């Protein structure tokens, strides 16, 4: 029975760690100004057109 508790706890820790990583990425993405987003999109479109 203790093994199942350890497995369950490891699963909960994994889910929490994944949430932290997602939240960190979300904060980075929201830190861009609208002008920065437009510039990045335009750059990606130009790169895709040249490929």
Describe the 3D structure.
This protein has 51 residues and is mostly helical. It is 90% helix and 0% strand. The mean pLDDT is 89.
Whole-number average pLDDT?
89
Low-confidence stretches: none
Head-to-tail CA distance between termini: 57 Å
Q: Tally the helices.
A: 2
Bin the helical content. over 70%
| Bulk shape | elongated
The number of distinct β-strands equals 0
In terms of structural class, how would the helical and strand content be classed? mainly alpha
Note the beta-strand portion.
Answer: under 5%
Largest sheet at a glance?
A: none
Rg for CA atoms: 20 Å
Please provide the ordered H/E string of secondary-structure elements: HH
What is this entry, summarized?
The chain is an all-alpha fold and 51 residues long.
Topology diagram in text:
Elements: H1 2-30, H2 34-50
What are the defining features of this structure?
single chain; 51 residues; mainly alpha; 2 helices; elongated; YtxH domain-containing protein; transmembrane helix; membrane; transmembrane
